[in-house]
Specification:
The protein has 11 helices and 14 strands. By secondary structure, the protein is of the alpha+beta class. It folds into 2 domains: 86 residues, Arc Repressor Mutant, subunit A; 240 residues, Penicillin V Acylase, Chain A. Strands 1-4-5-6-7-8-9-10 form an 8-stranded mixed sheet, with helices on one face. A 6-stranded antiparallel sheet has the order 11-2-3-12-13-14, with helices on one face. The longest helix has 18 residues.
C-alpha cells in the first residue's frame, strides 16, 4: 500500500466533541496504544522523569487547564481516551510530548531532551496568493502514525488537519482559510499549560488570522514553539517560550522562514539548544535556496521543502539513516496550504518516497475579502 493511502483524510462528522473523540480513539486504538507507549518511553529516556507515575502526574496537571481553556477539546481528548481504552493522562503524553520533555522539577536531573533536528516552515506570497508549508520532523518511530483528519461537524467549523493517531492536531487549514504551522522551540521556562495541539485546533477554527493570533496571545502556554499563522490577507510569525510570546515576523507580502531556534534576543535567553542541532544549517540552506529559486507558487514551495541539498543537514531530513537510531528525527510528513483558496497538499515522509495528495475544504468561506492586506 502506498504510504499516501495512510493520509487519505478520515472524516469525523460528529457535532458532539466527546463522540468525535471516541470515534477517533476506536478507529485507531492499536496505533494509539503503540504511539503512546513510544512517547512515554522517550519522555523517560530523554527528559529524566523518575518513572511513569511521575510523568503521568505532570500530564494530569494539564487536564484542568485544557478543560478551562478549551472545554470542547477537553471533551474530545477524553473521548479519544475512552475510544482507545487508554487513560486520559497517557493520551495527554501522546499529544504534549515535546512540552513534557521541557518541564523541570517533577523529573530527575534535566537531560538534553529532544531531537537535534526539526521542522522547517516557509511562508511566501506568490502568483496565486499566500502559500504556507512545512516539513513535519519528529522521532522517526512516529512516521507510521501520521494521518489527516477532515473534521466536518454540522454545527461547527470545518478543518483539514495533519495529525498523529490519538492527537488533536499538528497543523492544518480551517474553513475560513486560517492556516497554521508550528516549529518546536526548547524552552527553559516550561510549565504546566494548555496542551499545544488543542491550541492549534482552536486557532484553525478562528474567523481569520488575526483572531487566531489573538487566541495565541491569550493562551497560557506550556513550552516553546514558533507559530506561523496566515489567511491570505494577514500573516503572523510568533516565537513563544513557556511564559513569553514575541511577534518576530509580520506582513503577508514578505517571505518568512523559520526552523528551531529563536530570532528574538530576549527569547534566546530562555531557549535550550539541543546539542548537534541542525536548526541553523537548515535555516541557512532554506534561505539560500529561496534566494536562488524564488518560488512563486505551491509547486515551488513544495520543491523547496523536499530539498536534500546539504544532506544530512538538509530541509528534508534523514539524519537517522546515519545514526542508526530508530528514534532520531526525520521528516515524517510535508504540508503546504493555500489559505486564500481553501486547499492543502500533503505527503508522508521523504520527498522521494511518495506522491502528494491534493485536498480541499468542502465548506470553504475565506476570511473577509474587504480591506487592505495587513
Amino acid at each position: 500500500m502506498p504510504a499516501s493511502n495512510l493520509l487519505q483524510p478520515v472524516r469525523f462528522e460528529q457535532d458532539d466533541a466527546r463522540a468525535r473523540g471516541r470515534a477517533h480513539g476506536e478507529l485507531w486504538r492499536p496505533q494509539i496504544h503503540e504511539l503512546a507507549e513510544l512517547r512515554v518511553a522517550l519522555c523517560l529516556e530523554r527528559a529524566g522523569y523518575r518513572d511513569r507515575e511521575a510523568l503521568e502526574r505532570v500530564a494530569a496537571a494539564h487536564l484542568p487547564v485544557l478543560a478551562a481553556e478549551e472545554p470542547a477539546l477537553h471533551e474530545e481528548l477524553l473521548g479519544i481516551a475512552e475510544g482507545a481504552d487508554l487513560s486520559p493522562e497517557r493520551v495527554l503524553v501522546l499529544n504534549h510530548y515535546t512540552d513534557l520533555r521541557d518541564i523541570p522539577g517533577a523529573a530527575g536531573p534535566q537531560r538534553d531532551a529532544g531531537e537535534p533536528d526539526g521542522c522547517t516552515a516557509i511562508y511566501l506570497y506568490g502568483e496565486h496568493g499566500a502559500v504556507l508549508g512545512q516539513t513535519w520532523d519528529m522521532h522517526a518511530t512516529a512516521a507510521p502514525f501520521v494521518r489527516v483528519m477532515h473534521l466536518l461537524p454540522p454545527g461547527g467549523v470545518e478543518v483539514l488537519c495533519l495529525t498523529l493517531t490519538g492527537c488533536l492536531g499538528l497543523a492544518g487549514l480551517g474553513q475560513h482559510g486560517v492556516a497554521v504551522t508550528i516549529n518546536n522551540l526548547n524552552s527553559t521556562d516550561a510549565r504546566v499549560g494548555l496542551v499545544w495541539p488543542a491550541l492549534v485546533r482552536s486557532m484553525l477554527a478562528a474567523s481569520d488570522a488575526r483572531a487566531a493570533y489573538e487566541r495565541l496571545l491569550a493562551a497560557p502556554l506550556s513550552s516553546g514553539h514558533h507559530y506561523m499563522i496566515a489567511d491570505g490577507r494577514a500573516y503572523f510569525g510568533v516565537e513563544c517560550s513557556g511564559e513569553l510570546k514575541v511577534l518576530t515576523q509580520v506582513g503577508p507580502k514578505a517571505a518568512h522562514l523559520h526552523t528551531n531556534h529563536c530570532f528574538d534576543p530576549v527569547l534566546r535567553g530562555r531557549e535550550r539548544l539541543v546539542p548537534g542541532t541542525t536548526s541553523f544549517a537548515r535555516l541557512d540552506m532554506a534561505t539560500t535556496l529561496y534566494a536562488q529559486q524564488r518560488p512563486r507558487d505551491v509547486d515551488g514551495l513544495w520543491a523547496l521543502l523536499g530539498s536534500h541539498d546539504g544532506y544530512p543537514r538538509s530541509i528534508c531530513a534523514h539524519v537517522d539513516d546515519l545514526r542508526g537510531d530508530p528514534s532520531a528525527s526525520r521528516t515524517c510528513a510535508r504540508i503546504a496550504m493555500m489559505p486564500a483558496h481553501g486547499r492543502m497538499r500533503v505527503a508522508p515522509g521523504c520527498s522521494r518516497d511518495d506522491q502528494p495528495l491534493e485536498l480541499a475544504l468542502d465548506r470553504f468561506v475565506p476570511a473577509a475579502a474587504a480591506g487592505p492586506l495587513h
